[in-house]
Amino acid sequence: ILNVEQSPQSLHVQEGDSTNFTCSFPSSNFYALHWYRWETAKSPEALFVMTLNGDEKKKGRISATLNTKEGYSYLYIKGSQPEDSATYLCAFDILTGGGNKLTFGTGTQLKVEL
Amino acid sequence: KAGVTQTPRYLIKTRGQQVTLSCSPISGHRSVSWYQQTPGQGLQFLFEYFSETQRNKGNFPGRFSGRQFSNSRSEMNVSTLELGDSALYLCASSLRLRETQYFGPGTRLLVL
User: Fold this and answer.
1) Which residues contact B71 (CB under 8 A, 6 or more apart)?
2) Using CB atoms, which residue from B42, B100, B101 is nearest to A105?
């Protein structure tokens, strides 16, 4: 059983604050690391797919880094806005096997308050 | 392009019954994966289909099964429902294997 852990479990920040979350995953048999944002009553939305050690991805105020050697990824949100309130999920894709067998973490629930 | 659609959106069943959930992927997507989410659990992988073939299966009992049709639409079936099967069932499609998955809105199943 693969262990994908996310911390913190939940986070309350003020509008304008910058924040970051951590995703820890196995450092062996790495293929890809996915980040998703899941807003209440909506479908999970893909943010990034990261495949290379040292990779950095950016989408607006959100960015992510990847360290496959030590098995972690950070997601950063700069200048948080209320619309960033959501659960942020990471998912580990293992090298062995040919399909999309993603193992998800339990998520970090972010609440941005005015 | 239309997104991933799932029907029905909500369903109430009783223990022992069976249920079939449907997923229509984004047009052109050939891979469909199914996930279960229960309170306190992350998304748990059920199975994945590509070109009508099951490519991967998660750690779920044989009561959970699925199939994919030639138009890439997929169905999952749960037989002999148990209370613990109450969950949100999500399907996701991707153009090819191991690419970004796009999720549907889910089917919320309640087993009484």
Assistant:
1) none
2) B42
Are the C-beta atoms of A110 and A19 separated by less than 8 Å? yes
Q: Give residues with Cβ within 8 angstroms of B28, minimum separation 6.
A: B95
Tell me if A105 sits within 8 A of A23, measured CB to CB: yes
What is the C-alpha separation between B4 and A113, in angstroms, rounded?
31
Q: How many CB atoms lie within 10 A of CB A50?
A: 21
Q: How far apart are CA B28 and CA B96, in angstroms?
A: 9
Buried b (16+ CB within 10 A) or exposed e, B16-40: eeebebebbbbeebbbbbbbbbeee
Which pair of tokens denotes residue A47? 């943010």
Measured between beta carbons, the chain B residues lying within 8 angstroms of A105 are 42
Contact B94, B31 (CB under 8 A): yes
- Asked if B12 is an interface residue toward chain A (Cβ–Cβ < 8 A), one would say no
Cβ under 8 Å to A: B residues 47-86: 48, 50, 55-56, 58-59
**Least confident range of A69-73, B16-20, B98-102:** B98-102
Residue B94 near chain A (CB below 8 Å) = yes
**Over the stretch A81-95, which tens digit does the pLDDT of each residue have?**
999 999 999 999 987
Task: Report residue B1 as tokens.
Answer: 């392009």
